[in-house]
Amino acid sequence: MGSNAAAEGRPRGRKRLTNQTPPPSDRTRVKRLHERGRYDRATIDAILDAMPVCHIGYSINGLPYATPTLQWREGDHVYWHGSSASGMLRAIDGALVCLTVTILDGFVVARSAFHHSLNYRSVMLFGRAEKVRDDAAKLQHLERLIEGLFPGRWQTLRPVNAKELKATAVFALPIDEASAKVRTGGPKDDEADYALPIWAGVVPVRLQLLPPEDDPRNLPDVSVPADVGALKIG
Amino acid sequence: MGSNAAAEGRPRGRKRLTNQTPPPSDRTRVKRLHERGRYDRATIDAILDAMPVCHIGYSINGLPYATPTLQWREGDHVYWHGSSASGMLRAIDGALVCLTVTILDGFVVARSAFHHSLNYRSVMLFGRAEKVRDDAAKLQHLERLIEGLFPGRWQTLRPVNAKELKATAVFALPIDEASAKVRTGGPKDDEADYALPIWAGVVPVRLQLLPPEDDPRNLPDVSVPADVGALKIG
Prior knowledge:
The structure is a homodimer.
Chain A: H1 5-8, H2 26-34, E1 37-38, H3 41-50, E2 53-60, E3 63-74, E4 77-83, H4 87-91, E5 96-109, E6 117-128, E7 130-131, H5 135-149, H6 162-167, E8 168-174, E9 178-183, E10 201-209, E11 213-214, H7 226-229
Antiparallel strand pairs in A: 1-9, 2-3, 2-5, 3-4, 4-8, 5-6, 5-10, 6-9, 7-8
């Protein structure tokens, strides 16, 4: 339990990414081997792209919040959206936030309580939330959200109207201060404990998409389109 | 997209729970029907018990964080743990935190982009993180963590030693300022859009436990115990 997500998910210093794939440095390499830390954009992007649910850490009047929402990546930015009337979204316009994505991959079962752990992939991004103020840009981002989940669906939908666009706020965060933490593999027990007749191993966890369920008001000839079948997660 | 987790996961006012199952009030009932808000302990506890991964929102020197960790409930408190040497855990001792648990249950696919949504269950707890300072109490809480996941496993393990106990910090948060948000069911489209030949429905999501994988150093006669088989999630 010493090697848990609380200890490992915390960034050890906020590292500013200067380009998409920084050359491996001694510091990066040591962290990768010994501390589960990853700072390469390929790892960070893969985790962001695999899990649309994130938690945003922010403060309002000194009170901390961790609020779940949907995130999607476009190049070097991550976006999220919500109601324009949301007090939370009004409060974080221009404010410092921490956007965290976590994917649980398994329970690590050890021979002592202390070495039980989790396998997981997580990313923490830090920066200022920037509201997207241009309507055309906002609409394009919403299209990317839909297309990222359901490729090809946007053009099949009833178009977004002006009222809906006004009611929706979109926020951006640059991916330039980021860290990933990844744990994989089995337990790491104390050497003496391997002689004990205690089962150890991993119980893998995955997010599973179940077959789509029709809305009862679908028209008779309408069947599940390819865009919905293309949804992936995890 | 208007009815999304960003808008819905945010507590509309922090409600202090005065007992385990407050009598339904007009305010509670209206929120339940119209805003996905739930304030009853049965709903809150069921969500906390179904998902050990949480995100803790906190601030260090005015910078917000949302850090993933493992939580477990014992009665009217939620607990988490980590390394005693963790700067994060030292920083939040006595500090205000927000502990959020989120379970993704499905993608809600609508006839317009605006009405796409997510099905989910989430809980947000607010309060001051209290460090458990008594060693005997700390050990008991760690036992509950293991037993909560793997009932019966604690007594089969190599016992926790003094060094491990010292290296582990345990924190508590009372469940007395809490809200849950739950969305279920299919899309709620604009009435006119139901005439459109666009597929709508839900793609359910669930967390799946895969068969346990043996550690390669397990002794020959050791097989998966009942405690590991009893693990449940989601």
